[in-house]
Amino acid sequence: MVEFELKGLDELRKSLKRLPAKMQKKGLKSALGKAARVIRNAAKQNALRVDDPDTGRRIADNIVQRVRGRHTRRTGDLMVSVGVATERGRIPKGNPDDGAKGNTPHWHLIELGTEKMQAQPFLRPAVEGDAESSFDVFAEEVDRQVQKALAEK
């Protein structure tokens, strides 16, 4: 898991604190989602490079972003994750090709590599390469949401 801490947004924090808690979370959730979308799109582009063209399944089709509601309820902190969605349970025997949007339970073997296969990461470079642009999107969107909420207030 990669975690970041934003610094230097003191004015934005002060503006946020003037809003009711419900408005704060709504604006932050929207901004966090848009920032995660930047990383998700980069991960999809990276995954297209490593997908096997001989199969109908594509890892890129299964890259998703999710709001982690349970984490928010437990800690009070908002969390959005970007990753590869796969079906739970055992990998089917024979590893059937389900076509487009088919299950890709092997994605972690490609991302991390194995003893016999070199890693071809696609998620980590997306985070590392687009972190700054994602932060920019987050800051701009939070500012826009705060201004919108203050105008309504």
H/E element order = HHEHEHH
* Strand composition percent: 5-15%
Give the number of DSSP strands. 2
Helix content: 40-55%
Radius of gyration, Cα only, in angstroms? 19 Å
Q: Low-confidence spans: pLDDT under 50, at least 5 residues?
A: none
Largest sheet: 2 strands, antiparallel
Average pLDDT, to the nearest integer?
82
End-to-end Cα distance: 37 Å
Gross geometry: elongated
Find the structural class using helix and strand composition.
mainly alpha
Helical run tally? 5
Give the spatial strand order of the biggest sheet.
1-2
Care to describe what's here?
It is a single chain. Helices cover 53% and strands 7% of the residues. A two-stranded antiparallel sheet has the order 1-2. The mean pLDDT is 82. The chain is elongated and about 60 Å long. Helix 2 packs antiparallel against helix 5. With 153 residues, the chain is mostly helical.
Short description:
53% of the residues lie in helices and 7% in strands. By secondary structure, it is mainly α. Strands 1-2 form a two-stranded antiparallel sheet.
